[in-house]
Amino acid sequence: MAEARNVNSLQPNPFQMVGLQPGPMRGPVVKARAKDGRTTIVRLWAYLRQRRAHLWLVVVSTAVATFLTLYVPYLLGRTVDTAIAFRNPQQLTAMCLLLMAVYLISVAATFVQQYVAVSVSQQTVKEMRRDLFAKLLRLPLSVIDQRSHGDLMSRVTNDIANVSNTLNQTVTQFLASIMSLAGCLAMMIWQSLWMTLVTITVIPVTAFIAQRVAKFTRRCFAEQQRELGQVNGFVAEMVSGEKIVQLFHQEQRVTEQFRERNDRLRRVCVRAQSISGSMGPVMNMMRNLSFAVIAFAGGVFAYHHVITVGVIVSFLNYASQFSQPVNQLANQYNLVQAAIAGAERVFEIMDQPSESDGQEHDTIVPGHLRGEVVFDHVSFSYEPDCLVLKDVSLHAKPGETIALVGPTGAGKTTMVSLLTRFYDADQGAIYIDGIDIRRFDKEALRRQLGIVLQEAYLFSGTIRENIRFGRLDATDEEVEAAARLANADHFIRRLPDGYDTYIRPEGTNLSHGQRQLVTIARAILANPSILILDEATSSVDTRTELQIQEALWRLMRGRTSFVIAHRLGTIRRAHQILVIDGGRVVERGTHEALLAQQGVYYRLYQAQWARFA
């Protein structure tokens, strides 16, 4: 069983540690590009506009940094003209000091821009991640079942990361690029219209050639990464299956396969690295050619006294700066599209209805439940026209133990999912104490239910904290008393730190039986009115099983309990056994009565005894 998807309750309970997932997993197809960029940008702005003052500070600091960056080439040109025309050391010194001051202010403005932009973006992403995680915890299980766990994890991590990277870098770079283009063009026109025409003619040509070369290089590196991935995957597979390779004497064949892959990777790497190594000189050559054209044109204009030498120096700097924002804008387009697509996937989850959205305003918050449970002609399907439960009826009196028996996929866990309201019945109704459970507040209902599943899930933290998850206000004495009832106290006290022993993720430093005992203690501490045991003892040794059964029978005394088990010997004392097959109740009765019928239950029981004999 997987971890719970619904932790709606203000007071956690054992249901919040697990999830019942009988439905099929249907992963969605993820689009690579944004589908409705305008709407997504508006929704992102709803997060950003809460910090309008900070955003204005980013815009102002970006404008200051951009203006000063563009002002530097002009100052350089003035400095050159001053040195040539006046040969005045004092004026030259003053110009150099002014140049240094401009550099320092530009650096300071850039620092402010980056710091504030990163702060705004990280705060925005934190709120998006918070809202998405809160939404995930409140999604109906039916929505969770429609998506793979990897896809949901990707939305919380990768898609949020795409938004974060765009807000961190692309937004400020986009602003700076637009301002740089406009400012650079304005400064060039201000100094010389003819030189501006020469520059804007030469730069796009070189930028286009550079882009084509870069595109070809990216293809080569992409091929290199593909081949590298195949080699890595092959090595990982062979290392994992090394015993099989040796047992079947396939070392020579596997070595030959690796040699072919390795040689193919070598050829691709040589081509990619050779092209990459030559790209730098090619780019420098193209840049130098454009500078040469600008310098030649500037020399002609200077010879005819149209401009000064300082203007030529300025334009060479502007030529270098003019090409950068053009390339940046082209590169940022794909990044922005990826971020919008990621944000769309995040908002898609946020737009899903929560479990509480479908609840009526007059829902009932139950107090202590007596535990009378009735399934009244219940039918249910995960997919249309594919019934999983078909006209199921049962009546459990308060304090009775109901055992659900049947093959895998018969519908046993689905019945539990309906009782816990992870799903609602398509037809018929389920009643607890005479009230349709659809009228109960889900959060309040689940606080009355306790569940122990076959896959014992524990969180990172101490054993004491994991047991207390059943009831947060429990004292240490109550936690330890619950552990004693679950027969867990003896092994916990033998651990180095006892109840304060830290459990690694998913409880990997405890045996399966020990994890199971801790989850039983957690259920005991919750003190539920109705208990659900889903294969609770099917994966432990015989001695531990006997200890667990003893604790569970004490816990079930006086409580309505539903037990799902394949080990038929564990349910002999059940008041009523329901044999489910194909979504229908095919037999019902006590252990002795069902054996006497010599039907499905009898054959299952005989088959188990024959297997264990």
Describe the structure in your own words.
- Among the domains are: 34-192 and 313-358, ABC transporter type 1, transmembrane domain (ABC transporter transmembrane region fold); 203-306; 458-527, 3-Layer(aba) Sandwich (Rossmann fold), CATH 3.40.50.
- Helices cover 62% and strands 11% of the residues.
- The chain is built from 18 helices and 12 strands.
- It has helices at 37-48, 52-85, 89-137, 141-145, 149-191, 193-240, 242-247, 251-303, 309-350, 412-419, 442-447, 463-468, 476-485, 489-494, 512-526, 542-556, 591-597, 600-612, and strands at 373-383, 386-396, 401-405, 427-432, 435-436, 449-453, 461-462, 502-503, 530-534, 560-564, 576-581, 584-589.
- It has a 6-stranded mixed β-sheet with strand order 6-9-10-3-11-12, with helices on both faces. Strands 2-1-4-5 form a 4-stranded antiparallel β-sheet, covered by helices on one side. Strands 7-8 form a two-stranded antiparallel sheet.
- α3 (89-137) runs antiparallel to α5 (149-191), α3 runs parallel beside α9 and α6 runs antiparallel to α8.
- The chain is elongated.
- It starts with 36 loop residues before the first helix and ends with a helix.
